[in-house]
Fold this protein.
Amino acid sequence: MELARKWVQIVIGFLTNGYWGFPWTRTIYQGPLKVVCSPGLNCYSCPASTTYCPIGALQQLLGGIRFSLDAGQYFLGWYVLGCIGVVGSFLGRLVCGWACPFGFIQEMIYKIPSKKFEIPRCLRFVKYPILFFMVILLPLVAVNDFGLGDPWFCKYLCPAGTLEAALPLLIMQPGLRATLGWLFYNKLIILIFFMFWSLLASRPFCRVACPLGAFYGLFSRVRLVKLRLDESKCTNCEACHYVCPMGVKFNESPNDAECITCMACMEQACKFDAISLEVGGLPLRGSSPAKKTAGQANQH
Amino acid sequence: MNKKRKLRKSSFIVQGLFLLLFLAGVTSGEPSRVLSQSWQICLSCIGIG
């Protein structure tokens, strides 16, 4: 399953970043596919990006809300919220585990051998104020002299934009380098920080700072596809604690907002067939038959 | 004894609500605005300028 997940991440990474003509055009994709929402965090200023980033789009719409209302247009972010809401209510943070390019990059960096550290669980709450203040409130209320709000998260924090968009564009368009200032270096430091942290801990940006992950996490209890704990089979052996890349203690918190449905707990840890995948409350898949037999033998 | 598991309706209700939101956005013409925004390089977003 882990191999399948990696392949899905790679394929979706290429699908959402499928414009490979950018070395010749030296600019970003400007075609009709960009009306499609990227399910994961993927900057739409990335030269290869063929989809739009919902977090970036939402900030731009909210920042320009005064102009759109003055023009009699009601661009309040319904389309963007609807897209990520449908995805979230269907899959929740499964998107983070299977379809986010930036999550994939962090996982690859984590594989580099080094001393590994845990991320304090309390830090998972940091991403909710980031979602509320930097993505929603500040673009709406903190406007410039022209009445336009800034995309606060994209401008001051998002490391995915720096990695996927800023660096490639600086390579392709040397003229942009003259405009580099403290804003870029600030974001570069943030990128380096999260890349280094990814070496030492699993998915730090996803767990601590991703506003899209925070949004999808709100659907943890109602999403259609999720993992289920069979408490009658669970022995509380805590094996699932050691394999989870998001620090979820599945037997204690099966509807955790951090669960990215990577299925490591189901496939690699649980020997008692206590964890299964369900769709809408109905079982879809349990652990592999070999593990099931081993679990049943242990119980007897 | 295995309990018979029921289909969870809450997921579909939430999906339906967001689908309505999506359709409201489409009818207001928001996709064209999102498209025109995503065609432009957001220089402040990528930390340049």
Summary: The first helix of chain B runs from residue 10 to 27.
